[in-house]
Amino acid sequence: MGKVVNSIKIFCIANQKGGVGKTTTAINLAASLASHKKRVLLIDLDPQGNATMGSGIDKNNLSLNIYQVLIGEAGIDEARIRSESGGYDVLPGNRELSGAEIDLVQMENREHQLKQAIDKVAQEYDYVLIDCPPTLSLLTLNGLSCANGVIIPMQCEYFALEGLSDLVNTIKRVHKNINPELKMIGLLRVMFDARVTLQQQVSEQLESHFGDRVFKTVVPRNVRLAEAPSHGLPGIVYDKSSRGAKAYMQFGAEVIKRVKMMDKENGNRNGN
Ligand code: ATP
Ligand code: MG
């Protein structure tokens, strides 16, 4: 009804477990979507600054970063930097961000700082991807409260399912109390080794438990993906013929397709 439909998609890449492939997924999904001609902003919400470095931007040499954005001292338009290698924009982060947690606690609207900043540049992007830290902290909460959805990378290990329930519960709570838009977009199996029987078993369990919430793409364990960040390049740029690169290219296409489907479902529900 005359409402401007803003089709921008904001996704958190989250899992409170450390080292599961969040940053690798965030960087390579950003680069994959960019190669599909999408306008992408990658937000580094982790004080480790790995998404920043892996996009070819020196985290130790930033005049502005996401910290100033979160405390309202700068806009994203001032702090963002282009990743020339990846073809997307980066809102960079570094260890200054660990102080944000303390500053935010004292602020009004503390869960909504990031959302307010994104709203101002939203029309410039098709996708905003947020690389979350391995915690369920106020930083992650800022990410979840402005996102339309969460993409959860996970390794198919024995305790993976157990860890997942904390995250799923957090998503449910944020959905209920702060952000009714928030959905779990899907689980992405990463660092997968098909020769390991246990991984196959966990993978099958995931499919039977979460159904089509599990992405079809499976990202294999591939050393080229691990080497790429030290060159400041996304894996899909560093060695685009590698199995890892091909998987993330396919994942980008799958995300675009899934988003189209979700938009259609929403459209139907709204009666248009
Ligand atoms: P953190 O919780 O510390 O932020 P993370 O979840 O972001 O970690 P990554 O940094 O993406 O995880 O990955 C952890 C390590 O595994 C890195 O050294 C990365 O290069 C490597 N890695 C990620 N995905 C793959 C893969 N598919 N094959 C091989 N190595 C991978
Ligand atoms: Mg990370």
TrEMBL record:
InterPro entries: AAA_dom (IPR025669), DNA_Partitioning_ATPase (IPR050678), P-loop_NTPase (IPR027417)
Coiled coil: 97-124
Record Gene3D superfamilies: P-loop containing nucleotide triphosphate hydrolases (3.40.50.300)
Keyword vocabulary terms for this entry: Coiled coil
Domain spans labelled AAA: 9-184
Pfam family, one: AAA_31
Keyword Magnesium attributed: no
Protein name: AAA family ATPase
Originating species: Advenella alkanexedens
